[in-house]
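Please decode residue identities from the backbone states below.
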């Protein structure tokens, strides 16, 4: 079962409408178009706390759009996305962005700020922390991604892998409940991919809930609790990575994975 039946049953529902059994993230019949072009055609899935979902699919299948719907970087036309039982549409955007962090393919650090300042910025502006507290917190996040020695470096002085790790530290600094990754290693030189995946594996092992678009199947095998194959705006198949790798139910999944690995 997919546990959906719980929703309509009053059994353990608290007064605020949430229940202890709510998944961290619930996506129901998500539909999204850009003008005439339908991009997401009814996406349904739940993500429990501490789960790591890896999303794969051809270019243009809607992977980035789906992530962007989750933290409302883009609007959607149909369906519901809930975080801990609460619709993201009803949430204050700042609150949503604090609870759901995102790491992009393009490493968008501020060039005129040091690594530390890049991480501190959101803490100061969004969380209104004092300079000292923000710096302490930012420093501990840089340590977490192995970049404390580079705290005073500017982006131009960092490798692509180091910049991406600063991006991860910046997202972590907000204490997100869910982290979204959109092809975090796709823009990196091959020799720099490993250090970023290692940080992501550590986060996964530490219990971070993650939704990760990546074609790094070594990471998927090692870290994913579930693998989702998206094509033409629909989930073609979803299951434990070993199942999709070793005995996919759909030919399309087999063919796509054969090209990746
Ligand atoms: P993926 O990340 O799987 O490659 P995307 O979610 O980026 O796919 O894109 C899905 C479809 O939506 C593509 O056909 C793309 O051209 C279209 N699309 C994405 N972003 C926009 C946008 N801002 N405006 C119009 N169309 C878009
Ligand atoms: Mg994309």
């Amino acid at each position: 079962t997919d546990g959906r039946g719980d929703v309509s049953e009053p059994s353990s529902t608290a007064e605020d409408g949430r229940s202890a059994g709510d998944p961290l993230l619930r996506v129901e019949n998500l539909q999204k178009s850009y003008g005439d072009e339908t991009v997401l055609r009814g996406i349904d899935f739940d993500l429990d706390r501490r789960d790591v979902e890896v999303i794969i699919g051809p270019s243009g299948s809607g992977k980035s759009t789906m992530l962007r719907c989750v933290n409302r970087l883009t609007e959607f036309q149909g369906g519901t996305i809930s975080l801990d039982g609460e619709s993201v549409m009803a949430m204050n955007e700042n609150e949503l962005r604090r609870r759901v962090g995102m790491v992009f393919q393009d490493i968008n650090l501020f060039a005129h700020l040091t690594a530390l300042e890049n991480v501190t910025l959101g803490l100061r502006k969004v969380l209104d922390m004092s300079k000292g507290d923000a710096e302490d917190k930012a420093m501990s996040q840089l340590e977490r991604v192995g970049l404390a020695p580079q705290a005073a470096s500017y982006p131009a002085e960092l490798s692509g892998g180091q910049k991406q790790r600063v991006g991860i530290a910046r997202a972590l600094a907000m204490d997100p409940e869910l982290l979204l990754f959109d092809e975090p290693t796709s823009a990196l030189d091959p020799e720099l991919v490993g250090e970023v995946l290692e940080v992501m594996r550590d986060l996964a092992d530490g219990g971070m809930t993650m939704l990760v678009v990546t074609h790094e199947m070594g990471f998927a095998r090692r870290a994913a609790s579930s693998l989702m194959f998206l094509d033409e705006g629909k989930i073609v198949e979803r299951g434990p990575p070993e199942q999709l790798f070793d005995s996919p139910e759909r030919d399309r999944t087999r063919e796509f994975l054969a090209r990746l690995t």
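Observation: The radius of gyration is 19 Å.
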